[in-house]
Amino acid sequence: MRVLHVTSGNMYGGVETFLATLARESAAVPEMESEFAVCFEGRCSAELTSLGHTPHLLGGVRLSRPHTLLRARRALAALLRRQRYDVIVCHQPWTYVVFGSVARHARRPVALWVHMAGEGHHWLERLARIVRPDVAICNSHFSAAQLSRWLDAHIEQVYYPVSIPISAADGARLRTRHALDTSTSDIVIVQVSRLEPWKGQHILLDALTHLRDVSGWTCWIVGGAQRPAEIAYRRQLESITRDGGIADRVQFLGERTDVPALLVAADLFCQPNTSPEPFGLSLVEALHAGLPVVTSNIGGACEIVDASCGVLTPPGDSTALAEALERLVTEQERRATLGAAARRRPAVLCDAPRQMRRIHQVLSSVAAA
User: Averaged over 109-117, what is the pLDDT?
Assistant: First the structure.
């Protein structure tokens, strides 16, 4: 079975990490041959190329410029005439709105993979309802429930396969800390996510201002600003650290390609979302590295984190978050207990070979139909 995955490619986050995993783990299901097509060249296309899956380039699209939309649609139509694919998978409503009709016109089964299900009010979600996909795939039960409220389609829930090249080489933890001028004795609190307010970086930093008199902790904020609004948010976060007296204990590391090494060098992971996380790939990656996870008790995070491996706090409650973090910073035995369980948790949900077979099952059923 040949599958073409189509995505925008202009940003880098959970969707792009997932696509890289599909490429990396392709040998787990040799009967499913995955190819990729992107509109924009960037980190996503470069990473796929490094994994031996150079994507097809469709050309940049701006919906406000109809000629770019028509050009990209023609590029995909030409690709579908040259190559025979059993299923076309459009990742996110934007891609489906742009290319879903092209796949339909070529008489190919089409899947809409929704990585972040809203409530159906966004104009892209409304447009996505016009052409009914053969299947809609969601990354959590929470996302599937959200999607079922506004999309009339067959919906399948599939957890992401997770395969992370964790660096466990002797001295890797110490080298990473040394490079970031972080003491070997510090308890490092790390957050890895897009710089967007709903990811809760400001809640984390507000909680840490309550812990400024607690010694021995450092915070790494990982994630680069990719849009103007995110640049403004970064400035807001820096202001919180200055006003709260913790600027010397918080590092903004920007976008990184060595996230696995950073997780290995940290001690606990915190992402206090103010809005529901549809799944929470970064949470799974942190658990994979053996980090206790502190996050908000909403959305897909509740399917990933339980009391055995982390702490769930009310969204937006920096006081409760501060209390949870203080316990983990000061209680080494509790961190060790949660961390040991954290390493076992991802296999329950996201074992890469098992989830790759699950993806094959869903897409092959669409191709057969």
Answer: 93
User: Residues 88-108: pLDDT tens digits?
Assistant: 999 999 999 999 999 999 999
- CATH number assigned to the domain comprising residue 97: 3.40.50.2000
19 neighbors 163 (Cβ within 8 angstroms): no
pLDDT of residue 171: 79
Q: Are residues 180 and 53 in the same domain?
A: no
CB 230 within 8 A of CB 195: yes
Name residue, tokens 């933890």.
Answer: 173
Collapsing DSSP states into helix, strand and coil, what is residue 224? coil
Asked whether residue 166 is domain-assigned, the answer is: no
Is residue 292 a contact partner of residue 335, using CB atoms and an 8 Å limit? yes
Same domain, 311 and 183: yes
Whether 75 contacts 59, CB under 8 Å: yes
d(CA 267, CA 329): 9
Residues 301, 227 share a domain: yes
In which domain, by residue range, is 246 found? 172-350
Same domain, yes or no, for 357 and 249? Answer: no
**Whether residue 147 is found in the same domain as residue 197:** no
Q: Which of 314, 305, 312, 308 is nearest to 286 (CA)?
A: 305
Q: Helical H runs in 83-213? A: 92-105, 123-128, 141-148, 172-179, 201-209
Contacts of 76 (CB under 8 A, 6+ apart): 6, 37, 58, 99, 102, 103
How many domains does the chain fold into?
Answer: 2
Same-domain status, 101 and 126? yes
Give the strands of the sheet with 293-296, arranged side by side: 250-254, 217-222, 187-192, 268-271, 293-296, 310-313
Distance CA 345, CA 333 (A): 19
